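Section 3.1: Structural characterization of target chains.
Under the original work plan, the team committed to producing a structural model for every single-chain target entering the pipeline before any wet-lab resources were allocated. The record below documents one such target. The sequence was received from the expression subgroup and is listed exactly as submitted; it comprises 204 residues.
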Amino acid sequence: MTMKVRPEIPTAENSTNFSVATGSTTVVGTTLDNLKAAIAGETGASAKYAAFAKAAKEQGYDQIARLFEATSAAEQIHIGLEYALVAEVEPDYEKPTADAPSAEASDLNLISGACGEIYETSDMYPAFIKKAQEEGNAKAVQVFTRAKLAESVHAERYMDAYNNIDAPDDDKFYLCPICGYIHKGENFEKCPICFCPKATFKAF
């Protein structure tokens, strides 16, 4: 399955899948606080997926390793977008670091990844978007929105890899350099999230 390209770029205003999960446990502060929290979360996710990529390669799952590598890079894109907004307010802000967790079997790593991405797309980012809207911070709304939409696709990629772990294909993964969307296979022209053209995507 792939995310369909809509006539207009999806936003928090023209989309209906931005509800905050019932029973949300996300701690919501100011938008500045939320940007820093998102950076910390994405930093941890990027480190985790890099470790999972190494494990997948060692376990003989080349395609899954490439997916984890692409997603680790996607989280770095989100970190960059969020960091730029923090730096506008706090020029001396230093990015946090994160230790990679121990990897398990690749099927369990895929489930772990999917669960993290689902939390971000259905809980954390919608809550942060709502706060940024309340504060009138349009830049943060856009950054959070693009990350939120990309994370849901990451979860989908992980579940597809999980379901087909014993029936891999040789498709490449293509990473959008603007928003972190990941496309599987060659059949696309542009990013469905930010409309960035295929020619600029990085292949994994």
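The mean pLDDT is 97.
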